[in-house]
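Researcher: Re-running this chain for the archive, since the previous output was lost when a drive failed. Same request as before.
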Amino acid sequence: MTAPQLGTLAWVPAADRPDLLAAPVAAALASLTGPAWVAEIDDDLADTAAFGEAYRVPSAASANCVVVAARRGGETTLAACLVLATTRTDVNGLVRRHLGARKASFAPQDVAVAESGMAYGGITPVGLPPSWPVLVDAAVAAGELLVVGSGTRGSKLAVPGSVLAGLPGAEVLDGLGQPVG
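Model: Regenerated structure tokens:
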């Protein structure tokens, strides 16, 4: 397996460096339908804009994962939404309707961290609880290779879009990612 050339990072097979991954992410690697690479980064540069600038990874090659809390009646459903970093998640439109919720919003940070077992700012769809829907924008699913979180702020994963679309609980949705501005 040849390491990708993506930005200035040194990518290695993710299975070779479980120490760079959150425990749920490392545990999920064996069930992926394709390759995943990991690269160590400065944890102060984990946010998308700072990461892209520091490591010369274009925003179009990065995908952001946000955790959404969808509510209907007394029930709350947590879901992950994965969109290109050049877009924003349509939480109050498509996500809310797709999950059959009256209200949808970004999950509180403490809830997202506790329920995912991952660090805030590093949450990734790889290794999320199996009960969570994973909503993947069609542009992400079509991506050749995308950078996503690793469950920690100290590294990033590079994964083909088709692998992300094949995650347990994943559903590909057109229009999940909306243009910014």
